[in-house]
Design brief:
heterodimer; A: about 400 residues; mainly alpha; Formate dehydrogenase/DMSO reductase fold; two-stranded antiparallel ribbon; 15 helices; B: about 260 residues; alpha+beta; 3-stranded mixed β-sheet; 3-stranded antiparallel β-sheet; 8 helices
């Protein structure tokens, strides 16, 4: 019997358990790193949108998190493609997609989309922090002084007119950044949506589903990090800021819920050839992950919590945690769940995440690699925070009260 | 002659429109499209494959030959070609299996390792050999980000082992799951129609290994080729035509239970 056969040298055999009839070459080829990758890019998009809400739409209550979410989105953005390098069986050849890009492939556009977005985020950060950088370049000496001097890029003009121009540029960059962020993540959705062989992925709604879940996860992670960051440094947590973020979260939560819902309803109603196996996946094999964690805990519960009036900090924090768990589960369900239906529609592939790094392959595709990748953005944020402090403009109790009315 | 701006714009517009009409004619009278009106297949050299499932006995010699010929580790559970067994019971239940890609052949009545299927309970049973379909519109080629997989002039889909980055997008996009990662080279790998043999006038390893004449390789639109004559005159079907890949492995005796 072939089910459960282990063949160490075959890529995929280590973590795939087959059931009933699957094609002989069928293994789980897109694994946990392909779960982490959209999760990280999603956080990037969400964090950036949040910072743009302050810079473009002038939402005063978001001022304390505007700088933070911008720098955080850079930290996430730097880490976003790393899971892909872990995933490739030939990571040292990844440059090939830049040397001979095949533009009919959705992945080939990655470099272009990624670098464009990186340029926007980096330049916006530079403009936002310019007065701070110039001040430190002039005051500090030694290594830090040198770092700040390099970061000024030779521009020391902090006159009123110069700063005014800066502000205008920031506004433009933040505005351009919104569609760019949407494109970055919508494009990730497109990569999945265009795979015609996987019934769960093949829907034109995929880019939008991914985008909405990206925004909710990004806003949620900002609520969590802001609350935790403030508590750790014993600073005042502004309820108005939290409520403002919670409002954004709840709005996008509704859209995300509707999009994901209509996708499933459509599959059930049209009941194409693959509905038999898809319904078994939804209601039996992935029922707990999809229905309980992804939908009930990740969407319905936070929606209820956020729609009860007078959102407290704790309530927003809990909702944000639930949303993060829900979105991560959604990525898992899409990537792993989608592939766990055999292309023969007559069998299943079960995925077992390698835990102990018993071989290079088991480490590369295993739990420890994932933990490293998920922690790395926070480490980067910690380092960035040393150079560009992100929580300098937090509200005092009075400022917070004042902003509530605005 | 003096030209006003208005006149310049007017004349420019007219000349552009005028130029577009003859250019669009090229689209209408595309030589390939016209040729296809005369011949059902273009005159272009195009390799294709025929599998006569009615003759297959499931000995697995083709799978064995393929593995040995093409440097695919014999004991690894990945195949460039494999044979599936379909067993339908009287109650309608369909049992499919392909143990180890059938490289040791089917030797017992044990579909999916089950021993509870008595012979008199089987309403029909047959074997279906499978391999890469060398599609006319291969979705694997479409999605390769580095251009490492490509279709040759004569219709064979190949992978450049030196250029493949191993993202697995092609494997995910193949409706037939004809692709896998080669355990030694760590790049995407698949059936090549034994390109190294057919371009030298020989037959593929699997065709030569088949003692029952199940497998046939040849050129489409070559009047001397058996493949062409079968595809032209007999009722053949292809696997999963709904994906729009236009597969070029034609099957005789395909059943609706075949996946």
């Amino acid at each position: 019997m072939e089910a459960g056969s282990i063949n160490e040298s075959v890529h995929g055999a280590l973590w795939t358990i087959r059931e009933l009839y699957t094609y002989p070459n069928e293994y789980m080829y897109w694994t946990v790193h392909i779960v982490v990758y959209p999760f990280l890019t999603g956080l990037v998009a969400g964090a950036f949108v949040l910072s743009s809400m302050y810079h473009v739409f002038g939402k005063e209550q978001l001022k304390p998190v505007a700088k933070f979410s911008l720098v955080f989105s850079l930290a996430l953005l730097i880490m976003a493609p790393v899971p892909l390098l872990f995933h490739l069986t030939q990571p040292f050849r990844s440059i090939n997609i830049m040397l001979t890009p095949h533009f009919y492939s959705a992945i080939a556009a990655f470099t272009l989309v990624y670098l464009t977005y990186m340029a926007i985020v980096m330049s916006e950060i530079w403009f936002v922090f310019r007065p701070f950088i110039v001040k430190n370049a002039l005051e500090k000496t030694g290594l830090m002084g040198l770092i700040y001097k390099v970061m000024t890029l030779g521009s020391y003009d902090v006159s009123e007119t110069a700063l005014h121009t800066d502000e205008k540029i920031i506004k433009v960059l933040a505005a351009v950044g919104i569609p760019a962020a949407a494109f970055l993540h919508g494009y990730v959705g497109f990569i999945f949506g265009s795979v015609k062989t996987v019934p769960l992925w093949k829907t034109p709604l995929m880019p939008f589903i991914f985008l909405m879940s990206a925004i909710i996860s990004g806003v949620a992670i900002c609520i969590i990090t802001y609350t935790v960051g403030m508590s750790l440094t014993r600073k005042f947590i502004c309820g108005a800021s939290i409520r403002s973020m919670a409002k954004v979260l709840s709005m996008f939560l509704i859209i995300a819920f509707m999009l994901e819902g209509i996708d499933i309803v459509f599959h059930a109603y049209t009941a194409e050839e693959f509905w038999g196996i898809l319904s078994e996946l939804l209601f039996q094999r992935f029922a707990f992950k999809m229905i309980v964690i992804q939908w009930v805990c990740g969407m319905i519960l936070p929606m209820i919590l956020l729609f009860i009036p007078n959102v407290s900090i704790l309530r927003a924090f809990i909702s944000a945690c639930l949303v993060i768990i829900g979105v991560f589960m959604m990525r898992w369900d899409v990537v792993i769940g989608g592939q766990s239906m055999s292309r023969s529609f007559a069998g299943f592939l079960n995925y077992k995440l390698p835990i102990l790094p018993t071989s290079i392959e088991a480490f590369r595709e295993g739990l420890f690699a994932v933990i490293i990748l998920l922690v790395a953005p926070f480490v980067l944020l910690f380092i960035f925070n040393k150079v560009l402090p992100v929580f300098t403009e937090v509200f005092t109790e009075e400022e917070c009260k004042l902003s509530e009315g605005k | 002659m003096k030209l006003t701006r208005r006149e310049l714009l007017k004349m420019g517009l007219i000349s552009i429109c005028g130029a577009v009409i003859p250019v669009s004619a090229f689209e209408v009278f595309k030589p390939e499209a016209l040729a296809s009106l005369i011949h059902p297949f273009s005159k272009k050299k195009r390799w294709a494959f025929v599998v006569d499932t009615t003759k297959c006995v499931g000995c697995g010699m083709c799978v064995k030959a393929c593995k040995l010929e093409n440097d695919v580790p014999f004991y690894a559970d990945i195949q460039r070609t494999w044979v599936e067994r379909y067993v339908q019971r009287k109650g309608g239940e369909v049992i499919i299996d392909s143990p180890r890609g059938a490289r040791y052949g089917f030797t017992a009545n044990d579909p999916q390792g089950r021993t509870d299927v008595p012979e008199d309970d089987i309403s029909k049973g047959f074997f279906v050999p499978k391999l890469c379909n060398h599609c006319e519109k291969p979705s694997c080629v479409q999605v390769c980000p580095a251009g490492a997989t490509y279709k040759t002039e004569d219709g064979v889909v190949l992978v450049d082992r030196k250029w493949c980055i191993g993202c697995g997008y092609c494997i995910t996009n193949c409706p037939y799951f004809a692709r896998f990662f080669h355990p030694v080279y760590n790049t995407a790998d698949k059936c090549t129609f034994c390109y190294h043999r057919i371009t030298k006038g020989r037959k593929t390893a699997c065709v030569e290994a088949c003692a029952f004449g199940v497998r046939k390789i040849g050129l489409l639109n070559d009047p001397d080729s058996e493949v062409f004559n079968i595809v032209k005159t007999e009722r053949v079907a292809v696997l999963k035509p709904e994906y729009g890949n236009e597969p070029h492995v034609f099957y005789i005796g395909l059943d609706h239970i075949v996946r």
